[in-house]
Amino acid sequence: MSASLEPKISRTSSVDEKQDNVLFKSKIQKLIQSKDNNNLYRLLKKNKKSRTSYKQLKYEGIIYKIGQNLCIKADRRIDYVAKLIKIIKLVDNDDEIYPLIKVQWYYRKFELEKIPKPYMDYISENEVFKTNEYDYIEIESIVSLASILTYEEFDQLETMNDTTYFMRAAYINGTFQPPIEEWTTTCICQKPPNPDLKYIQCEACQGWCHLNCLKLTKEKAKKILKFICPKCQQ
Ligand SMILES: [Zn+2]
Ligand SMILES: [Zn+2]
């Protein structure tokens, strides 16, 4: 009796298992289609074959290491910047591999919300703000390495490219750390410097003044051989 039942039980359970796996696979496909990599990670991290202990990855001939900063493309934009936190190989029941990376986002100017307009004038297109936001994303999102300098380093650059940024604050839960009021200021107006605006440098104090604040046009400023700021003239 029990002998004749056994095959029946085992056959039933294998059909269930197969159905489970079909469901599981279609769940994975749905997550991939909707680019829901955070939930894909949650789903597959339990698999014993999934690994997160890689120190570097090679993508399109370039080696990327944990802790390096990256230019990232998403939604057809290639403007995002993030730090590489983890390299992950997710594996499903059929040993299919889904590689992902975990990144910590930096915000750029266009991602900031509810910042008063005058403050936005201090912020550069080449500026980034470290956040406490993390995501799992596809390796194919990597565009290149990014370099993130201090404002002082960035200010000294003679040439730059579109993978060079600077950072003078973090942006955590909608506020700058340190707050804008504590950022180093420049010019007679005592505002934080924005490298995107036109300035003239004082030969005496090396400080920068807005051409606007001095009521100077670009053409007039070019003709000044030795600029001494109003503060140093006193
Ligand atoms: Zn000014
Ligand atoms: Zn000066």
TrEMBL record:
Entry keyword set: Metal-binding, Zinc, Zinc-finger
Keyword GTP-binding: no
Signal peptide, first to last residue: none
Gene Ontology MF annotations: chromatin binding; zinc ion binding
PROSITE patterns: BAH (PS51038), ZF_PHD_2 (PS50016)
Keyword match Metal-binding: yes
Domain BAH: 62-182
Pfam families listed in its UniProt record: PHD (PF00628)
Domain PHD-type positions: 184-234
Name this protein carries in UniProt: Uncharacterized protein
Organism annotation: Paramecium primaurelia
